[in-house]
Amino acid sequence: MRKPYRIAVIPGDGVGPEVTDEALKILARASELFGFSYDTVVYPFGADHYLATHELMPADQLDRFRSMDAILLGAIGDPRLPAGLVERGVIAAMRFGLDLYINLRPIKLYAEHLCPLKGKKPDDVDMVVIRENTEDLYTGMGGHFKKGTPDEVVIANQIFTRKGCERAVRYAFDLARRRGKRKKLTLVDKSNAIEVQQLWRRTVEEASPDYLDVTYDFAYIDAACMWMVKNPEAFDVIVTPNLFGDIITDLGAMVQGGMGVAASGNIHPGRVSLFEPIHGSAPKYKGMNAVSPIAAIAAVSMMLDYIGEEEAAHAVERCIADLLVSRRIPSLDASSGLKTSEIGDMVADGLKRHAGAAKV
Ligand code: IPM
Ligand code: MG
Q1: Is this prediction's pTM over 0.90?
Q2: How far is the CA of 312 from the centre of ligand 2 (A)?
Q3: Which of 62, 125, 139, 333 pairs with 342 at a CA distance of 20 to 30 A?
Q4: For residue 84, which atom of ligand 1 is closest to its CA?
Q5: Does residue 239 lie within any of the structural domains?
Q6: pLDDT tens readout for residues 108-160
């Protein structure tokens, strides 16, 4: 018997706990069907914990995570707290502290009727965004001077390192090769206006001789947003700095049918990595059992793939696709008429039929 996987679970804020319950339901079902075992350690981090204890995460928490196989997160963020406090103290702290330098965000349309773009089919919307996850304006380097006075000055530094660019670019090239679809890498930047971003272009050019089977091109972020809507079929793998990656993946989530389906992995290859839905904590829906848990369930699929349970991962993804194509789950928002827990049950019940499925 293989050793059980060790999974840290952070349900978090808002709808996080509800969608995490469904994600864990699917993990449990997958372990029965595919014969792996796991232990979970549930952590309370998020707004309630902070309000009760004034602690974001204990000082030794990152070390605890390092002894685990993966972390599953629901959502973090709460309007009772200053904007960004728990997001930075929990999500960003893990991304930076565990050096999770890849933010892997697939954008895949499972069912044509979910796409808001006229005439676009599942084959047209099938890309992966590699968002660099440890640099850029997110490092918080900078500060205030004369805060609150008429002479206030703020500075935020946009940080890029050659190492940070190169590891993201090479990961993206490798992925374009491995996916074997269009075998194309697009760097999305803004190097016409922000000259230092030419480091990204040089990095792509310097790495490209190692990937002669992958073509590459460059797009500015503003134009890339336009093409994402006009010609999503032009994209295969996108690599982009942290902030642009944050923005373009919300756009991508809508193109694939909504925030209710989009999942992500925060990855350091070979080390403990973090999986979460792209959506936020949606406080106004908290406790209503009304939001789609599909994004959190898709995050479980990505996690299973990462820890080496590919067959289970593919079955979960197939099952999601099947429920959406057949319209048994008719939409990804509250208009579906299905409760969060009912959708979780449908995936759990359907999973067995998809054992042995190939990747979607
Ligand atoms: C995301 C989120 C986070 C980000 C927030 C919660 C800090 O929007 O994961 O996309 O900006 O990275
Ligand atoms: Mg975001």
Answers
A1: yes
A2: 27
A3: 125
A4: 7
A5: yes
A6: 999 999 999 999 999 999 999 999 999 999 999 999 999 999 999 999 999 99
Token representation of residue 337: 């008429």
Does 114 map to a domain? no
CA 87 to centroid of ligand 2, rounded, Å: 11
- CA geometry: angle 40, 42, 48, nearest 5 deg: 170
C-beta separation of 260 from 311 below 8 A: no
Nearest 5°: the CA angle 180, 184, 187 is 140
Cβ contact 11:40 at 8 Å: no
Q: Nearest ligand to the C-alpha of residue 250?
A: 2
Q: For residues 199 and 187, is the Cβ–Cβ distance under 8 A?
A: no
Q: What CATH number is attached to the domain comprising 80?
A: 3.40.718.10
Number of domains in the chain: 2
Q: Which ligand is nearest to the CA of 83?
A: 1
In a domain, 4, yes or no: yes
Task: Report how far Cα 348 is from the mean position of its chain's Cα atoms.
Answer: 22
Is the CB of residue 157 less than 8 Å from the CB of residue 142?
yes
Convert the pLDDT of each residue in 190-214 to its tens digit.
999 999 999 999 999 999 999 999 9
Q: Is residue 44 located within the same domain as residue 132?
A: no
What element of type H or E holds 302?
Answer: helix 294-307
In this structure, the residues whose C-beta lies within 6 A of any atom of ligand 1 are 77, 87, 91, 246, 278
CA atoms of 281 and 77, how far apart (whole Å): 6
Alpha helices in 231-281 (DSSP H): 242-255
Characterize the bridge pairing of strands 273-277 and 263-267. antiparallel
Residues 158 and 244 in one domain: yes
Give the Å distance between the CA of 243 and the centre of ligand 2.
Answer: 9
CB 43 within 8 Å of CB 9: yes
Ligand 1 centroid to Cα of residue 134, in Å, is 12
